[in-house]
Every structure is written in C-alpha cells, then in structure tokens.
Amino acid sequence: MQHTAGSVPLDNDSMYAHIFSFLGLPLSRDLQDPSVGAVVMGVPYDLGTSGRPGARSGPAAMRQASANLRWEEMRWPWGFALRERLKAIDFGDVVYANGDSDSMLQEVEQHAAMVAAAGKTLISLGGDHFATLPLLRGVAQHHGQLALIHFDAHTDTYDEGEKYNHGCMFYRAPQEGIVDPSRSIQLGIRTEYERSDHQYAVIDAHQANEQSVADSVAAIRQRVGDGPAYLTFDIDCLDPAYAPGTGTPVVGGLSSSRALQILQGIADLNIVAFDVMEVSPAYDHAQITSLAGATLALQFLYMRASRL
C-alpha cells in the first residue's frame, strides 16, 4: 500500500511499531458496522485473586505480545488468512470504578451483552478468572443457557462463601441458570475438587496429556453438542514451563502445542464467545505467558473465521 509522507499505515504488520491494539486491529467501539464479526475486549481486573496478583495487567501484556504474531499473514496450520474471512476490532478495556468489584461486574456484563446483542463474537482478555462470571451473564442474555468448555488447572467450583473470588464462578453460574453443567466439560484439571457430586465432565491433566488429541476432541464434542457454548481458557491450564506468568501455577499441565491442537479440533462447534484469563506479566519471563495468551486469542479468531 502506498502512503504519503507523514501518513500512518492502517494495515501495519510491524512487530514493534504502533503496538497499541491486539494484532494491530483498529481501535473501535462501533458495534453497528455489519462487516465486523469479532470484538476483542480487555478486562483489567484482579481483585478476586487468591494467590499472586497482577492479572489486571494481562490484557495490555497480551496486546504487546501479539505484535509478534502480526507478520504471519496465514497462521499455521490454518489454510486461510484471517483478514480475508473475518473483520475484527479491538474494543479496548472495560473501565470500572477503582477497587470496586461490583462496578466491574456491572460494566463487564453490560459490555458483553452489548457485543452479543450486536451479533459479534466476543474474545475477552483478562484479568483474573472471576471476570468470566459477568462475561457469561452478558453473553447468556442474548444466547440463553450456555455449555461451558473450560481449560484450567482448577475446577473453579469452590463454594467458600466469598462474594469475589476467582475460584467460585462455575459454582455460581449453574445456580444462576446461565451454564448447563450437563453439557459442559473441564480440561487440564490437576487440583482437588469434590468428585462425588461434581456436575461437570472432567478430563484431568494426566488424561489430557496421555490420551490422543483426537480422543480429547471427541469427548468435548460429545459432551457439548450443537448448542451455544462459551470457551474459557485459564492460562494455568498450561504447564508453568509454557506459562510461568500466572497467579496460581500448577506443574503437570498441558503443552501449548497440545492445547492449540485440541482447540483446532473443536473449531466448528457453536462457540459464541471466548476468553483467555489469568495472565500475570509480573511473573512472566521474556513474554512467554503473554505470547501464549495472545496466541490462544488469535486461535479463537481463526476458529471463528473457519465457520464462515
């Protein structure tokens, strides 16, 4: 593309210049544009964190790391260029009153509902995992009860009686009727939970690592079916070797390669919204975790584009 002197290219593929937005996508809040199919939104929140803090900086870190992904026009191993099928925008971050979790809940739910009602697919960048609860609430306003596809080291089904906690979301969501656990599945689990009355199907980390990718994909597809699904990916599903920068790292997790392969295998499911959570760059090294999170978000965009 030709540019006049002093102009700034809007299709910038530089890995170091103008890295303000995710993948260099246009910064926009225009949800009325019919050509836009996906919206990337940051949720810089970590007041529900129980361990190491810092996930509020996750959205900015993933945006910065995504500059490393700009140069590849056609992401391997997908057989098409993303920009040829799907137009996406970076919506920026949800802003809430400082230190006010109720404000966060209200603002995130409202924004998620607005994006879903506009017919766009929402990809959210976190932020601690508690932010997924208002995201689910907002998306369910438009799509109804959701199946949950949940990648994590923890089930997050704990009832500790705390109002704000990043381990309670998937205990509360079925109680609110926004998630159907009978159609939901959790992958990579490797911490304790009450197995006797656990409502979700579980592929624990040992099983996910030992069985074939095809077996994991088949189990997800069988459980979730054709209804609307929400995919949430806590970065600590990955082994700390692949994602050290997170609040509650647990060894023995999935490799980034295995996770990406599983995601590609379920691309044609009716996944209406995605998120990647718990990137805490203060504990990261050389952007390893931020790059993993950004790559997962890019994978989500390709998954959505593959259905067009």
UniProtKB/TrEMBL annotation:
One Gene Ontology term of the molecular function aspect: metal ion binding
Enzyme Commission number(s): 3.5.3.11
CDD domains cross-referenced by the UniProt entry: Agmatinase_PAH
GO biological process: putrescine biosynthetic process from arginine, via agmatine; spermidine biosynthetic process
KW Manganese (keyword) present: yes
Superkingdom of this protein's organism: Bacteria
Pfam families xref list: Arginase
Cofactor note text: Binds 2 manganese ions per subunit.
Cofactor(s), by name: Mn(2+)
Enzyme class: hydrolase
Reactions the enzyme catalyzes: agmatine + H2O = urea + putrescine
InterPro entries the UniProt entry points to: Agmatinase-rel, Ureohydrolase, Ureohydrolase_dom_sf, Ureohydrolase_Mn_BS
Residues that, per the record, bind Mn(2+) 1: 129, 152, 154, 156, 236
Binding site for Mn(2+) 2: 234
Keywords: Hydrolase, Manganese, Metal-binding, Polyamine biosynthesis, Putrescine biosynthesis, Spermidine biosynthesis
Family according to the record: Belongs to the arginase family. Agmatinase subfamily.
Function: Catalyzes the formation of putrescine from agmatine.
Protein name (record): Agmatinase
Organism name: Sediminihaliea albiluteola
